Amino acid sequence: MSPYIFGVILPLLVTLIVRNKNSPKRRGVPVETGGEPGLTIRNRRFESPVQSAWEGVTTLAELFEEACKTHAEGLFLGTRVILARELESGNDGRSFEKLHLGEYSWLSYDTVFDVVSGFASGLAFLGHAREERAAIFADTRQEWFMALQVLLLPS
After folding, report:
1. 71 SS3 class
2. Cα separation of 134 and 61, whole Å?
3. Where does the secretion signal sit in this chain (predicted)?
């Protein structure tokens, strides 16, 4: 074998062997979600699974419900009314909209939970099933957030 071929092939082989040795092993736990087998993978730097602040809370819907129960009277979603709009142009010729906003109007956790529960009941009454798709087409507002929470509910 020519020394040139040996000088080219040997570094490639060493690189491939070292790369495969240093690749981190995937730490996964086999799970079955929704009837389909899968693998749950967590960050390899942490040996234990992620823990929840509340015992038994494992989904976003459960987290939302628990937060609403715990902080029922607390302020949750706040919005401000647009009092005036001005169109201003900058030195570079671009124009931008300047808004003058009023004071915040707040909804409590309890109020938001009641709205979400009512909205979910309305969807169920209209015949929307659990596995059916739904779309939210709205500006980023508190109503959008509440509609999202409805769709995250288990039933």
Report:
1. coil
2. 17
3. 1-19
Going by their DSSP bridges, the two strands 75-89 and 95-108 should be labelled as antiparallel
- Return per-residue pLDDT of the chain as tens, 155 residues: 577 777 888 888 888 887 766 556 655 666 666 667 776 666 666 666 666 677 888 888 999 999 999 999 999 999 999 999 999 988 888 899 999 999 999 999 999 999 999 999 999 899 988 788 888 888 888 999 999 999 988 76
Contacts of 69 (CB under 8 A, 6+ apart): 113
DSSP H or E segment with residue 144: helix 142-152
| Assigned token pair, 122 | 């309305």
Pick from 105, 109, 28: nearest CA to 66 = 109
